[in-house]
Amino acid sequence: MATGVTRKISAASARAHTRRAKKTNSLPLPSGILGTALAVLFIGFLAWAYQVIQPPPPKICGTPDGPPITAPRIKLRDGRHLAYKEHGVPKDAAKYKIISVHGFNSCRHDAVIADTLSPDVVEELGIYIVSFDRPGYGESDPDPNRTLKSIALDIQELADQLGLGSKFYVVGVSMGGQVVWNCLKYIPHRLTGAVLVAPVVNYWWPGLPANLTTEAYDQQKLQDQWALRVAHYVPWLTYWWNTQRWFPGSSVIAHSPHIFSHQDKELLPKLLSDRKSYAAQVIQQGDYETIHRDINIGFGNWEYSPLDLENPFPNNEGSVHLWQGDEDMMVPVTLQRYIAQNLPWINYHELQGSGHIFAHADGMSDTIIKSLLRAK
């Protein structure tokens, strides 16, 4: 008689055999769907980011959506227009003809030398001054192709169309001082003399000692250090960086009080009062083509260094003057001193206790212009 084999089954095993499989609520994604979804999200993010960093188009003066044209203008070689303003004695009767170059976030009305020059000095010396809106500012058309050289050529063409003669003087204030460097580089044969008033220094100019630039750079506020880094290394982010609200942008754009010296703060009320009537015109065509493009060019990679410039007046037929306050909070005096020491043909004037806007102090314009015109 055959006997069957009895197998013992544990309780746990029995439960496992009788337990029903759990149902899942999610359906498996077909192959490649997840990767495609991630790619679409990434592309969408890039498209959003691209839109965010793009500055709005400028509102050109004289166009249906743009501001009106109120100033006299010349038409330049490439079709752009340059707005200008005349000061002093009539042009045809002038003995000295000067082109004034305004600074950052300014316009043709910010011609401090012309506005504060004594009427007696103007008449006595026979001085004619023309100020103009740099590209994009005021009522001058933007120049999306602006370079260091192009602005010097704009000045040359302004002089030619206004009939200022084969030679003329240039005076540049702050960022306008950088434009004067460009004139000394690209059109020195057209100059009779030049003045740089607290000219902005680019920390990345070749020839400046690394230890000196590092020390001066570190003295700037951290937010300004970052704003300049962005302008120099990733200029396409400049507009976004200075308009976003996550991190503080340029304190110069924000007009923060810490960028002004004691003297500057004393001079500011009058300066701001004078600007009330035209302040809205300064960047009326858009802030990108004005202040942000200024920063990108001013602190970008220059194709030359001012330290390599040669004396434009080797026979003393003219002179170049550089004026700097030793308490300037925006332009380090140490770098200015180094530049002046390495360019012995520069007439360097350092003012004790003065800040960045010292040219607005009583009698300062008279001193600056007399030193220029009587140095011949």
Automatic annotation (TrEMBL):
Pfam family for this entry, one: Abhydrolase_1
Source organism, top-level taxon: Eukaryota
Keyword line: Membrane, Transmembrane, Transmembrane helix
Segments traversing the membrane: 27-50
Keyword presence, Methyltransferase: no
UniProt entry tagged with the keyword Membrane: yes
SUPFAM superfamilies xrefs: alpha/beta-Hydrolases
Annotated ranges, domain AB hydrolase-1: 98-358
Protein name: AB hydrolase-1 domain-containing protein
Annotated organism of origin: Glycine max (Soybean)
